[in-house]
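Let's sit down with a protein and look at its sequence and fold side by side. Go ahead whenever you are ready, and we will take it from there.
>
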Amino acid sequence: MWFAVYMTGMIASLIASVYYSTTARQRGLHPLQSRMILGKMNVSLGVLVLLFGINQFTFADLSSLRIAVGIVLLFVGAVNLIFGLRNFFRYRQQWQNAAKNES
């Protein structure tokens, strides 16, 4: 069961990060909209790294190196997830305000 959830999460977050990365770099987008989409990309990459970190603790033979790598991956994934959410909500609000002021 864990393997199916893990693989689905990995594939979904990898596809989402590639999609958001290419979408954010299209021409003609408002700069705030592009930054908002890059925030979504950071969220999906944070989920991917978090899943890698959680996977380190599922092995039967836990060595100190495996635990250290897992903790580092969990930390990096959580930071990327938190900052991605912060950037997404910040730029979404600014983009909505800019669109409201233009019309």
Summary: Residues 57 and 63 are 10 Å apart (CA to CA). The mean pLDDT is 91.
